[in-house]
Write a structure and sequence with these properties.
By secondary structure, this protein is an alpha/beta fold. The protein folds into two domains: 3-143 and 370-406, 3-Layer(aba) Sandwich (Rossmann fold), CATH 3.40.50; 155-368, Rossmann fold (3-Layer(aba) Sandwich). It is built from 21 helices and twelve strands. The strands form two sheets. A seven-stranded parallel β-sheet has the order 6-5-4-3-1-2-12, with helices on both faces. Strands 8-7-9-10-11 form a five-stranded parallel β-sheet, with helices on both faces.
């Protein structure tokens, strides 16, 4: 019996109190460890792709009292525990290492961690950028505990996931407001193509041959990756929206402006996050479609295995790992939204073909991609036994409950509000300002911008005055000291 501490991101938009909001994959992972006879404590939070400060003393004390034998940090999204505990720390990659938290701490102490990854490109990033020894990196594919059941079909196509937007389009908007030349626009487009082909390319390497300051300042690679991912997902889902599509996920599907109104109208606002809920949706759909983030060039999201294990037929964007992991399965794949529509129509119009793919997929999952296979690989790599006949336990905790000073949600809202104030636009403008209030805001908006610029100017003037005063005071003090010494002589 091992004592295992786990931390992971949960972006599920649930407001109900006393509700444990754990995505299906993490739920299966934690339940699997518990069923194998381990004592598991899992903390979920809403901080993604951000660095963490020093761990609060009260939380650190609680973890020390738990006394873990093993620590799993998904995407390293947690406080730095490397100096506080001597047990193995596994950084479990569910996204590219480019989205890990506290990357600087990892680079300063590369031998302290063990890494589990799903794609070769991630291992190369770890070796080249983080200087991680090859012996500390292991390839472990995802698994699923979704089970097929005979249910009445309720829809043709389902999708469960996010929109990838998150206000990342600002860099392009700022660039276009500068009235760029045709040459600069072509240069920006060429950079877009480079990022599409290689989302792992460094910002400096990407811009090394760029002479235009407008392009250099307003081309943010990380934002562009999100933009391209959002465009592909929205365009693909829109292409099949008239075939009987139903979408679950974050509320942004319904609330954010979209050029594809059919997507807004395809959204089902019922909260879906648990294994049971995902399983029910896939088993009542003819097709489960998967459109991945741009970073997933080789590996595929855990959504793929969830669909394969159900009674839905997988239709997915292409991934190199399909050939390696499923060499004999002809998955209906696509590389653009035109092909996505063709594949969905082909499956919907040929039920025997659909069921043949479904049965083959289920057989493959049962043979190689269940938690028991996952656990065996983990035990082999770590050299520890995580499977006993004893009864295990599992406790979930929300980080915002353990660190009540400021919840992660409040921090996120504050950060967004400050970023909008910086560009002269209030955070609640799109959702809250309507009618006369919106009319009034449009009239005073220029004044707000002038006030913002004046405030920044005054701030920097005061800052320089303080610095100058300190230097002047230091100079006067030195002169006074020297005169006093001469007088004493």
């Amino acid at each position: 019996m091992a004592r295992i501490f786990i931390s992971f991101f949960s972006g599920i938009d649930i407001k109900a109190e006393h509700t444990v909001v754990v995505p299906a994959y993490y739920e299966s992972f934690c339940n699997g460890l518990k069923s194998s006879g381990n004592v598991v404590w899992a903390i979920y939070h809403r901080k993604w792709n951000t660095d963490w400060n020093t761990i609060p003393a009260n939380l650190l004390q609680q973890i020390k009292e738990f006394n873990p034998d093993l620590i799993f940090l998904f995407n390293n999204a947690f406080y730095d525990l490397s100096k506080e505990f001597s047990c193995p720390i596994v950084i479990f990659g569910v996204d590219s290492p480019l989205f890990y938290s506290n990357k600087g701490l990892i680079k300063r102490n590369p031998d302290r961690y063990i890494f589990f990854e799903q794609q070769v490109s991630s291992t190369l990033v770890l070796e080249r950028e983080f200087k991680i020894p090859t012996r500390n990196i292991h390839m472990i594919p995802f698994f699923t505990e979704v089970r097929a059941s005979n249910c009445k079909i309720e829809r043709n196509i389902c999708f469960i996931g996010t929109r990838f937007t998150a206000n990342k389009f600002a860099c392009i908007n700022r660039f276009m407001k500068l009235n760029p030349s045709k040459q600069e626009m072509h240069e920006y487009l060429d950079l877009l193509k480079l990022v599409y082909e290689n989302p792992y390319i460094k910002q400096d390497e990407l811009l090394k041959n760029t002479n235009s300051s407008a392009v250099r300042v307003n081309f943010k690679k990380d934002d562009i990756v999100t933009i391209l991912s959002a465009c592909a997902r929205n365009r693909t889902l829109d292409s099949v929206s008239d075939l009987g599509l139903e979408i679950w996920g974050t509320s942004s599907w319904a609330t954010q402006d979209c050029m594809f109104p059919y997507l807004n109208l395809s959204y089902n606002g019922t909260p879906v996050y648990s294994l049971e809920q995902n399983q029910a949706i896939y088993n009542t759909s003819k097709i489960g479609i998967s459109i991945s983030h741009l970073q997933a060039k080789e590996a595929f999201p855990w959504r793929v295995l969830d669909i394969m294990a159900s009674n839905a037929c997988l239709v997915s964007d292409y991934h190199k790992n399909f050939k390696e992991y499923f060499p004999n399965l002809k998955i209906p794949t696509f590389v653009n939204h035109f092909e996505a529509r063709e594949q969905c129509l082909r499956i919907l119009n040929d039920e025997p073909l659909r069921m043949d793919i479904v049965h083959q997929s289920q057989e493959i999952v049962d043979k190689s991609y269940r938690f028991k296979h996952h656990l065996n690989a983990i035990q082999d790599y770590l050299g520890v036994c995580l499977s006993t006949l004893e009864d295990g336990t599992l406790k979930y905790s929300s980080l915002s409950d353990l660190v009540p000073e400021m919840s992660d949600i409040e921090t996120s809202i504050l950060r967004k509000s400050l970023s909008h104030i910086r560009y002269g636009t209030p955070h609640f403008y799109n959702k809250k300002l309507t009618g006369h209030v919106r009319f009034l805001y449009l009239r005073i908006k220029p004044i707000l911008r002038i006030f913002n610029e004046v405030f920044c100017l005054v701030y920097y003037l005061l800052l320089y005055m303080i610095l100058y005063a300190r230097r002047l005071g230091s100079f006067i003090y030195r002169k006074a000291s020297s005169l006093s010494n001469l007088k004493d002589r």
